[in-house]
Amino acid sequence: MKITKAVFPVAGLGTRFLPATKAQPKEMLPLVDKPIIQYAVEEAVEAGLDLMVLVTGKGKQSIENHFDTSFELEEALEKKGKTQVLEEIRKISSLGKFVYVRQQQPPLGLGHAVLMAKEIVGNEYFAVFLPDDVMDCPVACMKQMVEVHQKTSAAIIAAEKTDALGQERYGILKVEPTDNPRLHRIVDIVEKPGAQNAPSDLAVMGRYILPPEIFEKIEQTGEGAIGEIQLTDAIKSLLGEKEFFAYEYEGERHDAGEVSGYLKATIKLGLKRSDISEDLKKFIDEIAS
Ligand code: UTP
Fold first, then answer.
1. Among 47, 120, 137, 176, which one is least packed by beta carbons within 10 Å?
2. Domain spans, the chain
3. What residue stretches are annotated with the Nucleotidyl transferase domain (predicted)?
4. Domain 5-288, CATH class in plain words
């Protein structure tokens, strides 16, 4: 069955970005001139998904406003004859159908946030996007994953080779090879094991295609690491029942969820923009020398 629903958990507190995130969502911080969340929604559109389910929370109203029509702004831009930017602004509210569900305070973790989408998703496979992971890929990361799902009819988790630091930061996968060197059958998943206990160097990145059975598993999952309901724990308990593959996507990921990754992503994406790249390059050369 075709995947149509995209779930974006955006209810987190963004503590690594305080004080910037005291009164504004981390997901609305701009990378160059576009909020982080818009990159993820555009990726979903490229993957052919059309129902965007955003799991929001306290103080996240600007995300809803961003994807809503802004008549006053459009009128003002029209009057000023700023047709190009008007086009861009109009495009945002027509990226898909948007549905909002709210995770109540305090946010109880990623697993709990995904559970909030249960009724909307229903009984079908769905995609999950953690917008902090900004994917810069020749073919949209989720599009690559949807293609793999269509071939395997299984759950797919985006994966990337990592180092000792990554083994401390991310979920790490124990895998078996398949015929496709980018595709691995998942045998186990461990949240932030550290280099000593990591079963491999393959880390979970923020894109998933999950079966609806995950919701029941999340409901049965108690609080895990740091008192939160972890998605990893629910996936782990579903592994024996459903087939899961790790897919090493083609492309590059930027971790915009922490300050240095965010700055690097800003520079990398800025350098790709023809209107500012030359100036930016000159500046980087200047400060580097
Ligand atoms: P993160 O752990 O990166 O986000 O979760 P966070 O908790 O906001 O950030 P820090 O660690 O405090 O700095 C990945 C995604 O999951 C969402 C976040 O909004 C982010 O987009 N999330 C996380 C929720 O929606 N609810 C939660 O309970 C936790």
1. 176
2. 5-288
3. 10-267
4. alpha beta
